[in-house]
Design brief:
The chain is 49% helix and 17% strand. It is of the alpha+beta class and 905 residues long. The strands form four sheets. Strands 10, 11, 12, 15, 16, 17, 18, 19, 20 and 21 form a ten-stranded mixed sheet that branches. The chain has an eight-stranded mixed sheet with strand order 8-27-26-25-9-22-24-23, with helices on both faces. Strands 1, 2, 3, 4, 5, 6 and 7 form a seven-stranded antiparallel sheet that branches. Strand 13 and strand 14 form a beta hairpin. Keywords: ATP-binding, Membrane, Nucleotide-binding, Translocase, Transmembrane, Transmembrane helix. This is Cation-translocating P-type ATPase.
Length: 905
């Protein structure tokens, strides 16, 4: 037997528009015997395994090279090479060691984050029941090939895309593919419209969807990357990942630093050469300037800060793949959330009940059998036995006491409702077995079962029917009310109004009815004909309930200025109802409606639209792209394969821990607990981390500008031959002094009210004019106070020997950095506000190190300092204290201005 046609050779006519027999023939299979083992092996070799290809993760060396390519590290490498070239071995080794530290730390943290994600993926090989050589056998689903005949039953995961050959009451839940939570009735009937949408292809089943009811035999039409799941996975490769906002801002900042650093170096070298200094001395001076002008600790700090943030997120059940994604969360201005399993529980639940003309609410959610049926106080409590019998007997699903469901999730909701009414489904079914039934079918939209039930002590044949309200009502002639049974005409309008009310709430509505037969009656010959002359009992409204934390999480997000939109495969009316309960805002649209809009029209409509129903994967991708084009930093949440492409397009794709492997590969963050509220917590942490990075950059750039100004002024005005501090002193300040104010910034608690601020403008970089002004002001303070000792003792200066003025300048610069770091940890808030004790403890370490560097002989020789007298220490301390005092004064003035503006507005 020859192999099946490849995807490229496949006829243009879709499988779902061809008769089942024709599909089997086209796939060169046999309806009864399936494929032979030999043919299956050959097709497997031709088509490859039935699995979704995953993106190959970067190797350790690739990650390390990416770290080395960071512009800051490239500049440091240049400094190290030049230092070794001019025989400044100690300087070259120290700078080279810093580069290695940056690369090792960054690589380690990136790989650790990736390992956390990999640990979430549990290796498992699904099984499939397949007919080969006329025998039913169980094989690994990865070995399926086109043409295989696969047997399915309730509870199975569909292993590949296939055309239904025969079926009995088949339903599948396709939330993983389409996002629609309600099961889809399926049968072998051929569809005629080649434009039928994916969710309406009722004669096909799709990989990774679940069989919730019935049985079927299907012929496999597509496997692996040719399945609908595979095609969505293929879309991911077309989506190119963009740099995070932090990456873009640091790249911008690096450009600024490059101009400053190398511009200053050029000025110093030219000035030195014009002055007639030796070339080696001039290059050494340029190296000192470069070390001063390059924030050598920036890559390490950013990695440490993001690593710290990733650990905090992990503690809150969120895992990020790349460290920069931690910061991206803080810039989020729009969240596009999937509904099923993300905002909702993905557990169908009866929420409302219309019974005998009265309304009741049902407490409890999900598949837990706890809760009660509530009603208006003061009214008589009806007997629910007729409804309880219908709920338990006219359904097939089972729900264990710990919430494990086998069968249709909608029927599971009915079994749980029965339990809340005091009825046990398994006991009831065992006591009153079926004598006949009409299985559910999408053609007539109802199900009926017949049982012998004791009625007033007499065993009586009773039929129970459930189905769509319209079709059940059409078969009813009477209605059970609180006052007894009345003609249907008396209550039809009230029932239709109740159905409309439930539907407008986004509930899936089922009607229940029953019929008692005369003694001796039988329906076994024609049960369908017996589904008539029914007595209407009531309506139940079923919904996939919200997660308990979702509404509060949406409120916090909107309060933080983040637009939250819900995007789902369910109908738009359901989306609108759920969105109303969540408090999302106005406006609902269907996928067809947004597809009819041009990009410009949809962009204009977006502010008025917050719920989208019946959307396709392409719609989700388009919405994310258009929002990004409007300047939003977009987070997209989802757990199904149909979310994967949009997750990859988004700035921060958030996959659910229970979601598909494809979604986890596409996402940048995984919520282990599937909790939408965790995303809002992650945004709060992301904002805090960005604030810390801004504080760090403020501190680091103030240090940088102070040293740049110091070296430029010393060179231009020939102060100590242009050498105000030695290269070792600058490295000591960067390595051993500045690191401790950075730790204080890192450990500073999250400020109150951070989620009351609007999202930051991603177009406003770290190096914005206002920020740069502050860097110059704060850096100017440290520069002036450091320059003073060099000016008051010019006769003691020497560029070759340790001396008091240079040592005092070193002390003032060190103490100014320590005190300045304390007050610069917050802005515009005071850096002296509580909690401050932990900060003081950390800053006592560099204070001690500064004293050791000046007063201990071994350190004097290493750093190039001399001991200072008590008066010289007091002078240096007084100059350094001017830095925090003036910075706090500037912030106080700025806060007063902000208060006045707020009062005026």
């Amino acid at each position: 037997m020859s192999t099946v046609e490849t995807a490229a050779d496949r006829p243009a006519t879709p499988w779902y528009t061809q008769d089942a027999e024709a599909v089997v023939a086209a796939l060169r299979s046999d309806r009864e015997r399936g494929l032979t083992a030999a043919d299956a092996a050959q097709r497997l070799a031709d088509h490859g395994p039935n699995s979704i290809a995953a993106e190959k993760p970067p190797s350790t060396w690739q990650v390390a090279l990416q770290q080395l390519a960071d512009p800051m590290n490239v500049m440091l490498v240049a400094v190290a090479v030049i230092s070794l070239f001019i025989n400044q071995v100690s300087v070259g080794i120290l700078v080279g060691a810093l580069v290695v530290l940056n690369i090792v730390l960054g690589t380690r943290q990136e790989l650790k984050a990736k390992a956390s994600v990999d640990a979430l993926a549990k290796m498992q090989i699904p099984q499939a029941k397949v007919v080969r050589d006329g025998s039913l056998m169980q094989v690994d689903a990865t070995t399926l090939v086109p043409g295989d005949l696969v047997a399915l039953e309730a509870g199975d995961i569909v292993p590949a895309d296939g055309r239904i050959v025969r079926s009995a009451t088949l339903e599948t839940q396709e939330a993983a593919l389409t996002g629609e939570s309600a099961p889809i009735p399926k049968d072998a009937g051929t569809l005629t419209d080649p434009e039928t949408t994916l969710g309406d292809r009722t004669d096909m089943v799709f990989q990774n969807t679940q069989v919730t009811r019935g049985t079927a035999t299907v012929v496999v039409t597509d496997t692996g990357m040719q399945t609908q799941m595979g095609q969505i996975a293929s879309m991911l490769s077309a989506v190119k990942p963009a740099k995070s906002p932090l990456q873009r801002e640091l790249d911008s900042l690096t450009g600024v630093l490059g101009w400053i650093a190398w511009g200053a170096v050029a000025i110093i070298i030219v000035t030195g050469l014009l002055r007639g200094q030796e070339i080696a001395s001039v290059i050494l001076l340029g190296i000192s300037m470069a070390i001063s002008a390059i924030p050598t600790g920036m890559p390490s700090f950013v990695q440490a800060m993001l690593s710290y943030g990733s650990r905090q997120l992990a503690e809150h059940k969120a895992v990020v793949k790349n460290l920069t994604d931690v910061e991206t969360l803080g810039a989020t201005s729009a969240i596009n959330s999937d509904k099923t399993g993300t905002l909702t529980m993905n557990e169908m639940t009866v929420e409302s009940l219309y019974y005998r003309g009265d309304w009741f609410t049902v407490a409890g959610s999900g598949y837990e059998k706890t809760g009660e049926v509530r009603h208006v106080a003061g009214l008589p409590v009806p007997q629910f036995h007729q409804l309880a019998l219908g709920l338990t007997l006219c359904s097939d699903a089972t729900v264990s006491d710990d919430g494990v469901v086998i069968g249709d999730p909608t029927e599971a909701a009915l079994v749980v409702l029965a339990a809340k009414l005091g009825a046990d489904a398994e006991l009831t079914r065992a006591r009153f077995p079926r004598v006949a039934e009409v299985p559910f079918d999408s053609a007539y939209k109802f199900m009926g079962t017949f049982h012998e039930i004791p009625v007033e002590g007499v065993k009586t044949l009773v039929g129970y029917v459930k189905g769509g309200p319209d079709v059940v009502l059409d078969r009813c002639t009477s209605v059970a009310t609180m006052d007894g049974v009345v003609p249907i005409a008396d209550q039809r309008d009230a029932i239709l109004e109740a159905n409309r009310s439930l539907s407008e709430q986004g509930l899936r509505v089922l009607a229940f009815a029953f019929r008692r037969f005369a003694p001796g009656a039988t329906v076994a010959d024609d049960p369908m004909a017996a589904v008539s002359d029914l007595t209407f009992v009531g309506l139940v409204g079923i919904i996939d309930p919200l997660r308990p934390s979702s509404k509060e999480a949406v409120r916090i997000a909107r309060e933080a200025g983040i637009e939250v939109r819900m995007i789902t495969g369910d109908h738009a009316i359901t989306a609108a109802a759920i969105g109303g309960k969540l408090g999302l805002g106005e406006g609902a649209a269907s996928g067809a409606e947004i597809q009819a809009m041009s990009d410009d029209e949809l962009k204009a409509a977006l502010p008025r639209l917050h719920m989208f129903g019946r959307v396709t994967p392409e719609d989700k991708l388009r919405l994310a792209r258009l929002m990004q084009e409007q300047g939003d930093v977009v987070a997209m949440t989802g757990d199904a394969v149909n979310d994967a492409a949009a997750l990859k397009q988004a700035d921060i794709g958030v996959a659910m821990g229970s979601g598909s492997d494809v979604t986890k590969q596409a996402g940048k963050m995984i919520l282990v607990d599937d909790n939408f509220g965790t995303l809002v917590t992650a945004v709060r942490l992301g904002r805090s981390i960005y604030e810390k990075i801004v504080s760090y950059v403020r501190f680091q750039m103030s240090q940088l500008f102070s040293l740049v100004l110091l070296f430029l002024v010393a060179s231009i005005f020939d102060i100590n031959d242009g050498v105000p501090l030695t290269p070792i002193m600058v490295l000591f300040l960067n390595f051993f002094i500045a690191i401790f104010p950075v730790i204080v910034i890192l450990l500073d608690p999250v400020p109150d009210g951070i989620m009351l601020k609007p999202p930051r403008d991603p177009k406003k970089t770290i190096a914005n004019p206002a920020a740069v002004t502050l860097w110059f002001v704060y850096g100017g303070l440290i520069f002036i106070t450091t320059l003073v000792p060099l000016l008051i003792h010019p006769d003691l200066l020497s560029s070759t020997e340790p001396n008091v003025p240079v040592t005092m300048a070193f002390v003032v610069c060190a103490l100014g950095s320590i005190f300045g770091g304390l007050v610069m940890r917050r802005d515009p808030e005071s850096g002296l506000a509580a909690p401050i004790l932990a900060a003081v403890k950390w800053l006592s370490i560099p204070l001690a190190l500064t004293v050791v560097a000046v007063e201990v002989p071994f350190m004097q020789r290493l750093v190039g300092t001399v001991g200072l007298s008590g008066d010289e220490w007091l002078t240096a301390l007084g100059l350094a204290l001017l830095v925090p005092v003036l910075i706090e004064l500037e912030k106080w003035i700025r806060r007063a201005r902000l208060r006045r503006r707020a009062a005026q507005s």
